[in-house]
Task: structure prediction
Amino acid sequence: MAKEISTFIKLQVKGGAANPAPPVGPALGAKGVNIMEFCKRFNAETQDRAGQTLPVVITVFKDKSFSFVIKTPPAAVQLLAAAKLKGGSAEPNRNKVGSVTWDDVKAIAENKMSDLNCFTVESGMKMVAGTARSMGLTVSGTPPWETEAAEG
Amino acid sequence: MDYYRYVIQSAAPLREVIIAFLGDLPFDTFEETETGLNAYLRKDDDVEAIEGQLSDIAGQLSFSYTRELIPHQNWNKVWESNFEPIQVGGFCGVRASFHPPMADVAHEIVIDPEMAFGTGHHETTFMMMHQMQGLSFEGGRVFDYGCGTGILAILAAMLGAEQVDAVDIERPAYESTLENASRNGVGATVHAFFGDLGAVPDNQYDIVLANINRNVILNSLRALYERLLPEGVLLASGILLTDKALVVENAESAGFQWLAEERKGDWACLKFKKA
Result:
């Protein structure tokens, strides 16, 4: 029989860096979960993604056990990382000096497809590009679908 | 450690953008709520400067926030007040100070964890203790790398080690090791240090115990090799089975000879010798 669920907890934690401080401590501790066990497991599973902000959804069961699912970093976090690699200051809105390419946008959209509420890479790219604009990042170049239309 | 909680009100689409920018500041963990998200900052960080940057970002992205003080407390208290004693066969047992003494174990360790790792319940700690049963500690010098509650350092002292150095990068763990070593009557043998490997005197050891994680172990293999005496033993855990091959390969490159492994659940405990 499936275990009875007590609650879901949504956190964003840097890979390899979970510790019993807030918010992990209060969120899990209040439910009687062994916080240190979660930290050990989460950190072990994210050794390849150390330092990346990772969304994690924790299911706490009535018997005080838990399970969790780690998702890919938010599109905004990936966009900021891509802009930094290109040397942009990437300050939100104030200075539109940060930029990413459509190749960056495509890579992020493909990486996030399972989390994005869309069916095609192109629609995912449009969502990611929208996030980029809300961050003050310019997407340099021409969208691939416009290039294809021009060539067609 | 006291923390500040910043309660941020924002629409859902903006939350990941806020997380991206605040993640660049010393905010490293976020909690999603129905109305926005909570971000946390250590009270001893440079709060004034960070709040200046937070205020700039809030202005640019148009969100509001309030700040609350979260005083330090033992967040693991509920679990710690209910945990059951654990036994590694008849070799050793671990209990909290509120449990009655254990009659049928050769070595009894009393641990009050206070948010530090290491009560014997986790597969990795259990295997480390089990592997320690097969080693000779009598009169030896031991190093517990990433000591948590100090459980392994305490067991090493109980098994006859002459000196045990123990270090942890987390202050609650360092303090927990001091308290638990004293509680178990081995405070004179166990020397706790706060920090990374550099915080430990440059001693040579017969045995190194390292229940940490893959990356720390990989990055420390050569340093641990240098600190071991010839024929010295390294017991390493905190390693998932999927990472075992990588650790073994790197350990052998660093000069270690792989002697044995133990598995429990998804975890591995590896035994090496300084070749």
